Amino acid sequence: MGQIINGKEVALKVKEDIKNFINNRKENNLKTPKIASILVGNDGGSIYYMASQEKVSLSLGAGFVKVILPETLTDEDVIAEIHKLNEDDNVQGIILQLPLPNNFDEKKIIREISPSKDIDCLTFESQGKLYMGEPKFLPCTPNSVITLIKSLNIDIAGKNVVVLGRSNIVGKPVAQLLLNENATVTICHSKTKNLKDVCTAADILVVAIGRPKFIDKTYVNEHAIVIDVGTSSFEGKITGDVDFDKVIDNCKFLTPVPGGVGALTTTLLIKNACEALKDNEY
Ligand code: NAP
């Protein structure tokens, strides 16, 4: 029987460090981190993530401000709000909830976030630095994947890692972070041939495809570490890309959904805001 990697437990340690950092600053009458989260329209997933970000931020002592904008606005209106936050010395981190409604030009708007406040690593500058191996902020979901693997105290260098999914927000940056750790990385996608053969050869399998329960025991080997990034709504429940019940007995470690990758992501976002605060002081 494989072991469960508990994202909530790993998050506790990071949360403790953040609380200590913020309390220490409060005691010394220093500025504490504040995050601004922009929601355009009323996407259900975005409303859920924003509420969760607010709850975790406030519980750790960080400030949180919600900027809720109607979808009847223009690109320029949203950009004007971003500019205001870029110039606000009391805001260290800006989150733009994605996806934006279809009538907005997402790429054009993202470009306007100041890279020094881009705690979600969305801008060209942040992504460019990541791919040059000099990231300012680590993107939160990919960082959560790496942090969970590292929590097992294994040496990632030289491991054969397969990343299933090649999106700009998950698959590609996960692969890059693993490459930075000297893993041998294979990226798979919907056109990959012999997918099962590639996946079963992996020491570490990271799955981010958004297909609930797609990965069953025929895709893993008994020594594999399996990280499930998927969060799809399936039969009324948040469900991962891995069929947990069928895989847990046939691998070495597996992250659950919920309680795995997602349980750590928001905490890492607030950690980035603390880093932004430190960086902007020097
Ligand atoms: P995405 O943009 O839809 O990308 C999906 C990727 O999976 C694509 O590269 C696609 O290949 C590949 N794919 C789809 N079906 C496949 C199949 N049958 N075989 C092989 N590859 C396949 O999704 P995303 O934004 O990366 O998100 C992936 C999942 O992670 C979603 O469930 C999302 O909700 C979740 N997520 C979770 C967190 C968290 O914090 N836990 C954060 C972000 C996202 P092609 O490129 O060839 O189309």
From TrEMBL:
CDD domains xref list: NAD_bind_m-THF_DH_Cyclohyd (cd01080)
GO cellular component entries: cytosol
Record protein name field: Bifunctional protein FolD
Organism (species): Clostridium puniceum
Tetrahydrofolate dehydrogenase/cyclohydrolase NAD(P)-binding domain residues: 139-279
Catalyzed chemical reaction(s): (6R)-5,10-methylene-5,6,7,8-tetrahydrofolate + NADP(+) = (6R)-5,10-methenyltetrahydrofolate + NADPH; (6R)-5,10-methenyltetrahydrofolate + H2O = (6R)-10-formyltetrahydrofolate + H(+)
Residues that hold NADP(+) according to the record: 165-167, 231
Pathway note: One-carbon metabolism; tetrahydrofolate interconversion
Domain (Tetrahydrofolate dehydrogenase/cyclohydrolase catalytic): residue spans on this chain: 5-120
HAMAP family: THF_DHG_CYH (MF_01576)
BP-aspect Gene Ontology terms: L-histidine biosynthetic process; methionine biosynthetic process; purine nucleotide biosynthetic process; tetrahydrofolate interconversion
Entry keyword set: Amino-acid biosynthesis, Histidine biosynthesis, Hydrolase, Methionine biosynthesis, Multifunctional enzyme, NADP, One-carbon metabolism, Oxidoreductase, Purine biosynthesis
Pfam families: THF_DHG_CYH, THF_DHG_CYH_C
InterPro entries to which the protein is assigned, alphabetical: Aminoacid_DH-like_N_sf, NAD(P)-bd_dom_sf, THF_DH/CycHdrlase, THF_DH/CycHdrlase_cat_dom, THF_DH/CycHdrlase_NAD-bd_dom
Gene name per UniProt: folD
Physiological role: Catalyzes the oxidation of 5,10-methylenetetrahydrofolate to 5,10-methenyltetrahydrofolate and then the hydrolysis of 5,10-methenyltetrahydrofolate to 10-formyltetrahydrofolate.
EC nos: 1.5.1.5, 3.5.4.9
Molecular function terms, GO-annotated: methenyltetrahydrofolate cyclohydrolase activity; methylenetetrahydrofolate dehydrogenase (NADP+) activity
Family annotation (PANTHER family): C-1-TETRAHYDROFOLATE SYNTHASE, CYTOPLASMIC, C-1-TETRAHYDROFOLATE SYNTHASE, CYTOPLASMIC-RELATED
Subunit text: Homodimer.
Family statement: Belongs to the tetrahydrofolate dehydrogenase/cyclohydrolase family.
